C-alpha cells in the first residue's frame, strides 16, 4: 500500500479582532511548528494559547496541546497570554485580558493620538512659532496633564503594563 500524500490543511483562525482563512501545504510536524507558522502568517510577536473547535465535543473549544488532535479542516481560536514579567501576584490587579486591551501593540512608530481641540490648536501654533523663530512652546500644567492623560489612555488600550521598550517607542 502506497503512503498517502500529505493533504493541505485549512484553518479558520479566530482572533479577538479578525478572522482569517489560512491554507497550509501540509500538516505541521508539531504543535510548536504550528505556533511558529501562525506567528509568521499573522505577524504576531507575542505568546498565545490555541483552542480548537473539537468535533468530539460538539464543536466546544478545547485547548490544543497535540497537533494530531487538530482535524485537517478546523477552526482555531487564538487567545493572547499575559506577560508573566508584567503581572504581580496580587488579587487587586485588573483583568489584563479585558476587551479594552484586545488590540495588539502597534507595529512601527507609535501613532500619537488626537488631543482635545484646544490642545491640538496650541501644539499647532507652537510648531509654527518654533519653525519661524525657534522659540519653544510653554504649556500650562492643565495642557500637560491633558496630553499625558490622553497618551496614557491610548497606551492602556493596548497593554495595561507596557515594557520599557514599548514605552520608549512612545517617547
Secondary-structure arrangement, i.e. CATH architecture of the largest domain: Roll
Percent strand equals: 15-25%
Instruction: State the CATH superfamily name of the largest domain.
Output: Phosphatidylinositol 3-kinase Catalytic Subunit, Chain A, domain 1
Any idea how many domains? 2
Number of helices: 4
**Total DSSP E strands:** 5
N-to-C SSE string, H for helix and E for strand: EEHEEEHHH
CATH structural class of the largest domain: Alpha Beta
Low-confidence stretches: 84-100
Major sheet characteristics: 5 strands, mixed
| Separation of the first and last Cα atoms | 64 Å
C-alpha Rg, in Å?
23 Å
Give the mean pLDDT: 79
Which word captures the global form?
Answer: elongated
- The CATH topology of the largest domain: Ubiquitin-like (UB roll)
With strands numbered from the N-terminus, the spatial order across the biggest sheet is 2-1-5-3-4
The helix content, as a percent range, equals: 25-40%
- Briefly note the structural class of the backbone: alpha+beta
What does this protein structure show overall?
The chain contains four helices and five strands, in the order ββαβββααα. Strand 3 and strand 4 (60-63) form a beta hairpin. The chain has a five-stranded mixed beta sheet, with no helix packed on it. It folds into two domains: 9-82, Ubiquitin-like (UB roll) (Roll); 100-170, no CATH class. The chain is an alpha+beta fold.
